[in-house]
């Protein structure tokens, strides 16, 4: 097959229909047509900015669509078409099944309260699917309640915590001062009497702040609590929206925090 830049538009159209981005499709087009292509080849022929090419190639590798050599310069080639699309189809089916299971679960018993939008999360995958977007969408403030620093580092490594602290107001609230030793940022605690009172109110509160792993509140609107029970990870997520009373509660929480020395 001969490389023809004029065919790229039709090629890209077909690949974007199956979920690839435009840049991924252009990069794959060059590799597919040339059989073996260097980064320079891809840059000169695809029209994709050089600074983005490595990310697109990495994405295509993850999807199983291309492979690279161990030579210098590195060259990329397209993987077998049948194997590639069998893998893509399998991945797509798995995503559809996960989404179907999730929708069935929350429609049958996940929503506890129609006004507050409270959901039970019964798998690690479900917890991750809510936790990461909530953190990513935080714009101003994140209250992070930590009962297990090991789990915290698993879901939010030190580098990610430091990055968040530069972008938003990050309050790391530990249940024990010993936990602060494992965390590379300033940590806080409640005064003992206030913490005891807060935990006493949890039975009647929708906010899962006493989880035995971590809990977090994003922008005083969304809350997720994660806990370990009999070796399994569970969670509760609360989407509060614009609740004035809850905003006042969070303001009180921040006001009474004391730095761990």
Q: Explain this structure to me?
A:
- This protein has 261 residues and is α+β, with helices and mostly antiparallel strands.
- It has two domains: 5-85, Arc Repressor Mutant, subunit A (Orthogonal Bundle), CATH 1.10.10; 97-259, Endonuclease, Chain A, CATH 3.30.870.
- The chain has ten helices and eleven strands.
- The chain has helices at 8-16, 22-34, 39-46, 50-62, 81-110, 124-136, 149-155, 158-167, 192-200, 244-255, and strands at residues 37-38, 66-68, 75-78, 118-121, 141-146, 169-174, 187-189, 214-218, 222-229, 232-239, 258-259.
- A hairpin with a 2-residue loop joins β9 and β10.
- It is elongated.
- Mean pLDDT is 81; it is low at 110-115.
Write a compact overview of the structure shown.
The protein has 261 residues and is of the alpha+beta class. It has helices at residues 8-16, 22-34, 39-46, 50-62, 81-110, 124-136, 149-155, 158-167, 192-200, 244-255; strands at 37-38, 66-68, 75-78, 118-121, 141-146, 169-174, 187-189, 214-218, 222-229, 232-239, 258-259.
How confident is the prediction overall: mean pLDDT?
81
Number of domains: 2
What is the number of helices? 10
Largest sheet, order of strands side by side? Answer: 4-10-9-8-5-6-7-11
Helix percent band: 40-55%
Task: Write down the oligomeric state.
Answer: single chain
Model regions low in confidence, pLDDT < 50 over at least 5 residues = 110-115
Strand and helix order: HHEHHEEHEHEHHEEHEEEHE
Cα-atom radius of gyration:
24 Å
CATH class of the largest domain: Alpha Beta
Q: What is the number of strand segments?
A: 11
Largest beta-sheet characterization: 8 strands, mixed
How much β-strand is present in the residues?
15-25%
The helix-and-strand class reads: alpha+beta
* End-to-end distance: 68 Å
For CATH, the homologous superfamily of the largest domain is named as Endonuclease Chain A
């Amino acid at each position: 097959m001969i490389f023809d830049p004029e065919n790229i538009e039709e090629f890209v159209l077909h690949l974007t229909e199956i979920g690839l981005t435009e840049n991924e499709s252009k990069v794959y087009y060059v590799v597919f047509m040339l059989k073996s292509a260097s980064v320079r080849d891809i840059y000169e022929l695809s029209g994709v900015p050089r600074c983005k090419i490595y990310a697109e190639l990495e994405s295509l590798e993850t999807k199983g669509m291309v492979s690279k050599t161990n030579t210098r310069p590195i060259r990329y080639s397209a993987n077998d078409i049948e194997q590639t699309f069998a893998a893509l189809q399998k991945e797509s089916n798995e995503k559809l099944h996960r989404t179907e299971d999730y929708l069935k679960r929350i429609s049958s018993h996940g929503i506890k309260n129609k006004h507050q939008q409270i959901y039970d999360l019964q798998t690690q995958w479900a917890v991750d699917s809510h936790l990461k977007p909530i953190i990513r969408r935080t714009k101003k403030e994140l209250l992070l309640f930590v009962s297990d620093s090991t789990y915290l580092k698993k879901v939010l490594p030190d580098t990610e915590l430091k990055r968040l602290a530069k972008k938003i107001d990050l309050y790391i609230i530990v249940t024990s001062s010993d936990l602060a030793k494992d965390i590379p940022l300033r940590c806080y605690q409640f005064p003992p009497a206030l913490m005891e009172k807060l935990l006493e109110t949890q039975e009647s509160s929708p906010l899962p702040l006493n989880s035995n792993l971590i809990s977090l509140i994003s922008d005083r609107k969304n809350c997720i609590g994660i806990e370990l029970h009999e070796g399994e990870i569970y969670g509760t997520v609360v989407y509060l929206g614009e609740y004035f009373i809850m905003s006042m509660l969070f303001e009180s929480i921040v006001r009474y925090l004391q730095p761990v020395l």
